[in-house]
Amino acid sequence: MIVLLALLLGWWLARKEAKEKNYQLSEIDTFILVAITVGIAGARLYYVLFNLSYYLHNPYQIIQIWGGGLAIHGGLIGGILAGIWFCWRKKLKFWKLADTFTPAIILGQTIGRVACFLNGDAYGKPTNLPWGVTFTHPLSSAPRDISLHPTQLYQLVWNLLVFGLVWSFRRRVRYEVELFLSYAIL
User: Is 174 left (phi over 0), alpha (psi -120 to 50) or beta?
Assistant: First the structure.
């Protein structure tokens, strides 16, 4: 449900930015559908490849994305490949499109950190600090009943800061790719 929320908010924000940059919204909607499809496939493939020994023994679970297992890195790679293909096909400037979608990408990534936290995914090392988090749910990806660094929340705060910087800087870029590279570096 959180991934759906991230996709819908990202879609809304991307359309808002695209309208300001004089893209045809029907063209942007088509691209978003392609990018979501390829991005989800890339996110799953990336996750499966990094957990290959498990999936070699449980191949039927490869397509079960509803049980979790999407990696942002693979989603970004998939989305970038979809963008390159789409821009080539429609004769658009890739870096202009990438800059247009950058605020939506980091917003979606920020929301995704909430899902990671709720799943006990991407957890940190054990800690005795007062803000340590203990996961108790049997389906949590994190070890149960151990106080852990809430790295998902650290990332969420960082992603919010990056979103704020990207959002405030988006109208002051001097050349195409500047906004996307700022996001990628941060």
Answer: alpha
